[in-house]
């Protein structure tokens, strides 16, 4: 992943253009854009292709970043997969459940690493890789891997990690929609031996079981922060994936995690991570 070229799907739109420009200035190796209506044109001095296949064939890109409206995501993502893209980072939110089930099916079938949807993306400061919408003001090279379901809390953790001179080795927003595409085992097959990472901060919340996949992990030092402890049952909080219910009660989750790891009472306790 660290040396691969990147296709920006949605580069020609205002949102995609803005964040692609920031990523390029940061140092990310984005080489092309995708828009069949604007094929042959240049945006940010990057060629715009009519299809993922042509972009992969000509530029040899293996990663795509998705900035397009959710209605079009399924077809573009499946086209990415068939064209040879191996890693897909989806910023778009509110992809329908049916479309996400199809996307997950194809990602599993073709062994694709999919991050999102409704994700701020991923940033790796040491390698100047920014795939998504992370603000770079507080990004500094360090040894803390921040893994979060909430984009806003990720940004706060980044700011506090800089303030406490921890820095970041890698920051990942897994996505806030009800169905996310991330395969934890596949993601860690890429990054689990990432030498720059000393500690991992997992920011969990209501409505998710993904934290449970870390309970028996011992290769790195892990710290947790779980938000939403006072949230009412059966009420969506913030985004569609954040809902507390009797099948995944947050207090039971915290009790289970406490058996294995330290849970921060609030993110200001990030200074406890050493």
From TrEMBL:
Coiled coil: none annotated. InterPro entries: CoA-bd, CoA_lig_alpha, NAD(P)-bd_dom_sf, SUCC_ACL_C, Succinyl-CoA_synth-like. GO terms for molecular function: nucleotide binding; succinate-CoA ligase (ADP-forming) activity; succinate-CoA ligase (GDP-forming) activity. Residues 1-95 form the CoA-binding domain. Pfam families: CoA_binding, Ligase_CoA. The active site is at 239 (tele-phosphohistidine intermediate). GO terms for cellular component: succinate-CoA ligase complex (ADP-forming). SMART domains: CoA_binding. The keyword Membrane does not apply. Keywords: Ligase, Nucleotide-binding. One of its GO terms (biological process) is tricarboxylic acid cycle. It comes from the Bacteria. Gene3D superfamilies: NAD(P)-binding Rossmann-like Domain, Succinyl-CoA synthetase domains. This is Succinyl-CoA synthetase alpha subunit. The lineage of its organism: Bacteria, Pseudomonadati, Pseudomonadota, Gammaproteobacteria, Oceanospirillales. The gene is sucD.
């Amino acid at each position: 992943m660290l040396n691969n070229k990147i296709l920006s799907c949605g580069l020609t739109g205002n949102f995609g253009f803005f964040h692609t420009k920031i990523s390029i200035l940061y140092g990310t190796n984005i080489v092309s854009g995708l828009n069949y209506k604007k094929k042959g044109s240049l945006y940010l001095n990057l060629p715009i292709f009519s299809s993922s296949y042509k972009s992969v064939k000509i530029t040899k890109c293996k990663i795509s970043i998705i900035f397009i409206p959710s209605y079009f995501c399924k077809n573009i993502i499946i086209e990415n997969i068939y064209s040879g893209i191996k890693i897909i980072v989806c910023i778009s939110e509110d992809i329908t459940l049916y479309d996400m089930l199809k996307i997950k099916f194809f990602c599993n079938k073709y062994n694709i690493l999919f991050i999102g949807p409704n994700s701020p993306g991923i940033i790796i400061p040491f390698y100047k890789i920014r795939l998504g919408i992370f603000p770079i003001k507080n990004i500094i090279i360090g040894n803390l891997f921040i893994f979060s379901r909430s984009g806003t809390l990720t940004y706060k953790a980044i700011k506090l990690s800089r303030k406490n001179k921890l820095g970041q080795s890698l920051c990942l927003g897994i996505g806030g929609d009800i169905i996310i595409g991330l395969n934890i085992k596949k993601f860690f097959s890429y990054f689990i031996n990432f030498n720059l990472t000393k500690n991992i901060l997992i920011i969990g919340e209501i409505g998710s079981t993904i934290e449970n996949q870390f309970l028996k992990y011992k290769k790195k030092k892990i710290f947790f922060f779980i938000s939403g402890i006072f949230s009412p049952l059966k009420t969506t909080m913030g985004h569609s994936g954040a809902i507390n219910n009797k099948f995944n009660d947050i207090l039971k989750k915290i009790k289970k995690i406490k058996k294995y790891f330290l849970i921060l009472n609030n993110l200001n306790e990030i200074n406890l991570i050493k």
